[in-house]
Fold this protein.
Amino acid sequence: DVGGAIRVRRLARTLDAARALGKQIDAATAKRLQLAWWALRGERSSYRALVATVAILREAGILLGEPDAGLTYELLNVLRDTQLYMRPSGFDIQLAFGEGYLVRPEMDPTPSESGRVEQVLVSAGYGEQLQDDKAEISGTGFARLRLFAPDEQPSPWAIGATGRFRKFAYGEHGDPIGAFDLSATVSLSTDSCVGMDCESTTASRIEGQLGFSLWLNQASGVRLAATVAQDSGELFFGAQLEATYGLLEGTFAGF
């Protein structure tokens, strides 16, 4: 998650647009800013975060003079921007091994997982920020396989991947408006059924979704999305309308 680093870059671009940037924000100053925001993450108000940010920038010679009312408003928008949470960058790969024990009714004639069940799980993710941090591409993938299954029990497996593109919208003075998102998902799985009265089947799903999220305030918003999917040969069309209401603004949760 590089949301904190993006917030620093947005500060620099805001100061530069207002002709108040004395020099670029160096790594040491960026670290001081992010540590200050983290220390103030429990504050209900952005007042102390704004005061600390201005003080650090002035001390480092980055902010030229005291900010006027317009620049102060734009700095507050950067500090209170909830679209900077969970912004991935780089690769993430995880490998896990699971051990379990299942007990099923003795009279159940269906060949299924029972007794000791070992499985290997792999997940991977990638993210990149584009267009001055106003666009993002990301992807995730997973795989699951049962290991060491007896001959009379199945070894099911599943794989899948999701790709997503997001475009963030802002107002003239940095007010977060919302985000467009486009995603595609592909998954494939099989039950690997074994036995004379059992036929193994493979299922697949391809899904695409296009949506837009509109922020009503820092913690509340609505999202409208359209979905088309093909699930094992069946075609589905759908629409989603979601509403989120937050009792507390995002700054209380922390940067």
Remarks:
- The CA atoms of residues 167 and 255 lie 21 Å apart.
- The chain has a mean pLDDT of 88.
- The chain has five helices and eight strands.
- The chain has two domains: 3-79, 90-253.
